[in-house]
Every structure is written in structure tokens, then in C-alpha cells.
Amino acid sequence: MLILKTLVVVSHPEINNSQTQQFLLQGAKLQDVIWHHVEGLSEIDVDKEQKLLMSADRIIFQFPLYWYAAPSGLKNWEDKVLTRNFIYGDDNENLGDKEFGIVVSTGMPLKDFQRGGTENITIDEIMAPYHAIADRAKMKILPTFKIPQFQYMDESKQMQLLIDYQRYLTQAYPDSLSNRQAWFEQEFADRIKNFDDTDCTHCDAILNTFAQRREDITQLKSTINLIKQGEDE
After folding, report:
1. Please, which residues bridge with residue 59 across strands?
2. Distance CA 185, CA 181 (A)
3. Are 26 and 18 in contact (CB under 8 A)?
4. Average pLDDT in the 101-112 region?
5. Which among 12, 52, 60, 223 is least buried, having the fewest CB atoms inside 10 angstroms?
6. Among candidates 108, 1, 96, which has minimal Cα distance to 53?
7. C-alpha separations of 207 from 48, 178, 191 in Å
8. Taking residues 76-104, what's their average pLDDT?
């Protein structure tokens, strides 16, 4: 499986007091990604920041929604680091082979973010300036990962959020069934390495069964495609 190097550019002025960001941080640690908190930088070394961006395969902007935008710390970082020459000047494509995603949290439910709703604007419309930058840099834009009202989630919803977030950081795209299966198989294999015999006696058998089922599904899809081709002919 392709191993992605993911950079998470996080903006939050009071990150230590944020339950949402601290929860996501623990999930990110398990995925071996680079967690880069812009407000935590003593100074912004433009050359260093640009090299960090170029070293990543997938770049994620992560922040809470503050009055229909990211916190000012991200804007300050953008203005200094994302220079015209770096993004597209002189036909530069420094980020052209990268993937770009956004993880945004909000205290309002998603149903409010629609035309006619309380906010009367969609999350994707709010994210348009960031997508415009990524598009100008010729990056591949991923669907926005939205986290509404984390503080009201029960434990089961938080655990589902954790898995979905980890997949967003490192799973290959598109978010197809085969890519999901490959991600879960690799995750399980990685976790087995941390178990001893008493922790997971049947882990290898479970992993082998999962892999076999994935191969069976792939073979079934191939068979169905052959049947369809025969019907078309």
C-alpha cells in the first residue's frame, strides 16, 4: 500500500483548551503524520515552511470555524508562506503533485449550513478561498472533512469520528470500498505488531480472513464486469 506523508497545518489560538483539537491530536499521533500548529511557532521561517509543504504528499488545513473563516493565525501564516512565486509564479508547480484537504469544526449543526438554513451558507462555500488557492497551485482537492458539535457527541460517535479522521489523513483516495479495505487491513496489521501472544491470540487468523475476503470481493467484481461486457456484446 502506498504510504502517504501527511502534513496537518493546524490553527487554533487556544489549542490546549480545545477538546476537539486534543482529541484529533491523539488520532493523528497514531497515524504518524506531521502535526504543525501555526500559533505555536515562535517565528515563521518562510523558507522552512515552504520546504515542509513541498515534502508532504497530502496537506491538510485544520481549524475551528471563526465567523465563517479560519482563526487569524492561519491567515497570517498564509500571507507569509503562500507567496505568489511559491504558488504559481514563473510557472512554478511546487505543490502541483500534492493533495489538499480541510478539517473544519463548528459549534453549529451541519443542517444550519445550507441555503435557507440558520447560517444561509454552506461549509463548502465558506471554504472556497482555500480551495481557490489549492486550485491555483494545481493541487488535487479532497472533500472537506466536517466536524459539527464535537462536544455533544457520545462515545460511539467520537470513536467513529476518530476512525474517519484517521482515514482522511492517510487513506488513499478516492474513498472507494477497495481503498477502505486496504486501509483497514494495513491498520490491523500495524496494530498486531504491538500485541504479544496473550493480547491477541487469533490476530493473524483474523487478518488472513480479512485479506481473503477482500480478494474474494475483488474477484467477484471482476466476474461481474466480465458478465456485463458479455451482455453488451
Report:
1. 7, 100
2. 6
3. no
4. 96
5. 223
6. 96
7. 41, 16, 11
8. 92
Angle between helix 72-81 and helix 46-55 axes, rounded to 10 deg: 90
Q: Please, are residues 92 and 132 in contact by the beta-carbon 8 Å criterion?
A: no
Predicted local distance difference test score (pLDDT) of residue 199:
58
Residue 207: band (very low, low, confident or very high) from pLDDT cuts 50, 70, 90: very low
Q: Which three cell numbers stand for residue 14?
A: 487556544
- 231 Cβ contact partners less than 8 Å away, ≥ 6 residues apart: none
Residue 46 is which amino acid? V
Q: What are phi and psi of 148, to 5 degrees?
A: -90, 135
Question: Which residue has 518562510 as its cell numbers?
Answer: 46
DSSP codes joined into one string, 16-48? GG-HHHHHHHHHHHTTT-EEEEGGG-SS--HHH
Closest CA to 21 of 37, 2, 3: 37
- The pLDDT of residue 118 is 94
What is the tens place of the pLDDT at every residue in 124-143? 999 999 999 999 999 999 99
CA atoms within 13 A on the CB side of 39: 14
One-letter amino acid for residue 110 of the chain:
L
Percent of the chain with pLDDT over 90: 69
Please report, as a single letter, which amino acid is at residue 118. T
- Count how many residues are written for the chain: 233
Q: What is the pLDDT of residue 189?
A: 76
At 106, list the grid cell: 463548528
Q: Phi/psi of residue 102, each to 5°? A: -130, 130
